[in-house]
Amino acid sequence: MFAYRFAKLVACVALVFSSAVVADENKPQASISELRIEGLRALERGDRLAASDTADTILLDHGDDSRAIRIAADLLLRSGKIHSSIKQFERYLELVPGDRADLWQYGIALTLANQYEDGRKLFELHRVANPNDVENAAWHFLCVAKTTGIKEAQKRVLPAPNDARPPMAEIHRMLIDGKFQRVTDAMESMPEGTQAREVAEFYGNLYMGLLADAQNNRTKALRLVGASTNTNQSNYMSDIARIYLSEIEAEK
Description:
Elements: H1 2-26, H2 32-44, H3 48-62, H4 66-78, H5 82-95, H6 104-112, H7 116-129, H8 134-148, H9 150-155, H10 168-177, H11 181-188, H12 195-214, H13 218-228, H14 236-250
Helix pairs in contact: 2-3, 2-4, 3-4, 4-5, 5-6, 6-7, 6-8, 7-8, 8-10, 8-12, 10-12, 11-12, 12-13, 13-14
């Protein structure tokens, strides 16, 4: 009797499992856009593991599509999978080499991986596509400082005129002369409790922290980049700030 019941139980389990497999096989494959949204929602709730898992699914299901590879690379970078993101950015550029100048995200990934010379070249190329971006000048500055020193970096700050976002003009001048106070003053000039103030504080703290990192002042870099991560914003650069902080914390 026991043997009969056990065999019947095994048969029922097998039936349930096979039904689940069939149901899963019949489930329509999620599109690239649907998976992208799923990954972005994971990042919004701070679930980096789910976001990187979604990137893996994108590559598994749509791995020959250049758009899918680009989206996966972005999700991997924002999840902290820096080296995996570089691999996918490079795959994307093999398929779409004409996009290299636009791919500042790849430059940040290279910088976070300490591939400073490659990062420098990418940011110099990106200026062809976007000559007014102070952030591009800042990451280029970090790459130069890490390879040839802070004085050389100050001499070679990329021009970035007409970046109207507060406090980008002050950040650009800070890169040249090393004076933090003008950025702090610009942040504090924004009305308290406003989104404009929050955005200015995010970028001001992030790039003052980047300058401190370029100066090899790890304590100050940790404090300032850490302050930038207190933002309520959820976007590409807020994720980068958190990854950047993790990389500084991991330095010995």
